[in-house]
Amino acid sequence: MYHSLYVSDEWSASPRLTFTFGLRSDVQILNARPPYVGAVDSVLHLRTDRVPSNGIQWSPRVGFNVDLARGNGAPTQLRGGAGLFAGTPPLFWLFGGFSAYGLAARTLQCGTLSTDAGPAPAFNPDYRDPPMTCGGGQSFAAGASGEVDVIDRDLRFPQRFRASLAVDRTLPLGIVGTLEALYTRSTQTLFYTGVNLAEPSAGALDHDGRLMYGTIAANGIASPRRLTSRVGDIVSIRNQSRDYAYDVTSELRKSGRFADASASVSYGRTRDVQSPRPVSALLIDDWRFARPVAGREDDMSLTTSDYDQPLRLRASGTIHSPWQQRRTDLSFYYVGGSGLPYTYVAGGAGARGDLNADGAVGNDPIYIPRAAADTTEIKFSGTAEQIAAQQAAFDRFIDTAACLQRQRGRIMARNSCRTPWMNLTNLAVRQTLSQRSSQMFALELQVFNVLNLLNPRWGRVQLPTGTALTSSNQVALMSQTGETTAGARPQPVYRFDPAMRRYSSENYDTYYQIQLAAKYTF
To answer: Closest Cα to residue 358, out of 147, 143, 214?
Structure first.
């Protein structure tokens, strides 16, 4: 159960100065408890059956508005405020603690494929006695155990401090201008980390300099060093308070009898430790998709957030017909902004792609070689001809991207690349067909991404090939096929597609859409 209470009051300190005070309280009551897992408690001293306490979360805030106009001066007001804001808690993120406690379902795949454990077993019609081995006696992989999600007993739901300051002023020709600054800092947000990992030694680095939490076999399969082998991944969710963002917006707007219009430009930056998304009920997905990792799993250094968009432009307007009966309105909306940040990571088939052997596949940033033809820098698999083609293509891929070229000789930094500038323009026409008293019937035609309708080459949204940035900003660029284990430091072996295109516009947002709606108001 979840309960909230909000009280507020307004105080007019003078005819020109007004204060608003508010206080919100939130309390969540979790009656159920996850199962107790003794293997986790005995080794890590973490109780899986504990949930956050039912304490009250207080969120005070204050705002002000002051009229700065004097005499016949242009109307000017200064406004702002500061306070704590919690909002609705993300209870779905706690579901992992109740569903993942080491007894997750496992799959035994038998058949004729090379990836199958063995031949199919004899058919048994009794569903109560499913086969536990393949026809050749092969069973589940060694150490195949379920994930355990642990919720910190002192976990507090996300809460942020926000402060804003703005000035509004009436300019010539009836234009209203606004300049507003907004600062946000997390006082408590969620942090995911894998905790069933042995402490890596200071010299436990691979060839590229990434910290290793286990070993990788020659076939590229990683084996994390576990604190306990009785369970698999143990993902902990707790709080951290380092994230921050700031934003400055300048806006002009004008309203008239026959037209309304506004335009704004914003600049801001967002820095965070992780950018978690509710992609799964199991916390391992929130952990591995929250950020790429080349160092310590528990490192809380701030880097560029997945949601960072430095520059944004907006413009909108509506033209009203001079006739009032059966009125016609034409509206448009434009938004343009900096592209989305992303990180190139290693992929791979059959559990490959875990370059630091921490048990999480797909969150390890790649190493950018000084020269792709130098096998001491990077290795590719295949025939001599295939390797030469991959080396030449990978060098071209790096040289044509400034974000990669300037990082040659080191592991790619998180979100250090960015997609091209993005544009979106929508158009809508609303036609009132009949209007009597308080009743109105109207039709509305909306065209989303109208530029693409006018010209197929316009309005395209370019995203890294083969990825969906709606779920993760980590883009698999190369596939790990193996590992060179000779020498003091292991080195990954990759396969790169020479025909790889950096961006693709084959996505849902690129194409125009048309929608016809009927609206009846009474």
So the answer is: 214
Q: ∠ at Cα 245 (244, 246), nearest 5°?
A: 135
pTM exceeds 0.90 for this model = no
- For 255, the token pair is 């309203």
Q: What are phi and psi of 91, to 5 degrees?
A: -65, -25
Residue 481 in contact with residue 380, Cβ under 8 Å? no
Q: Is the CB of residue 342 less than 8 Å from the CB of residue 419?
A: yes
Please report, for the chain, how many H helices and E strands are present, in that order.
6, 27
d(CA 329, CA 320): 5
CB-based contacts of 521, cutoff 8 Å, min separation 6: 438, 439, 440, 441, 442
What's the Cα-to-Cα distance from 33 to each of 47, 123, 145, 332, 412, rounded to whole Å? 11, 40, 22, 51, 41
Q: Which of 2.30.30, 3.30.160, 3.40.50, 2.40.170 is the CATH number of 2-106+144-366+412-521?
A: 2.40.170
Task: Kindly list the distances between the CA atom of residue 150 and the CA atoms of 40, 197, 316, 390, 453, in Å, as whole numbers in the listed order.
Answer: 9, 14, 47, 43, 50
Which residues pair with residue 417 across a beta bridge?
342
168 phi and psi angles, rounded to 5 deg: -115, 135
DSSP string, 464-485: ETT--TTT-SEEEEEEEEEEE-
pLDDT digits (tens, 9 = 90+) for 380-407: 999 999 999 999 999 999 999 999 999 9
Name every residue whose Cβ is closer than 8 Å to that of residue 376 and which is 6 or more positions away in sequence. Answer: none
What's the rounded Cα separation, in Å, for the pair 206 and 44?
Answer: 27
Least confident among 135-144, 184-193, 469-478: 135-144
CA atoms within 13 A on the CB side of 253: 17
Region of 456 (left: φ > 0; alpha: ψ -120 to 50; beta: rest) is alpha
Average confidence (pLDDT) over 352-377: 94
pLDDT digits (tens, 9 = 90+) for 306-361: 999 999 999 999 999 998 888 899 999 999 999 999 999 999 888 899 999 999 98
Domain ranges of the chain: 2-106+144-366+412-521
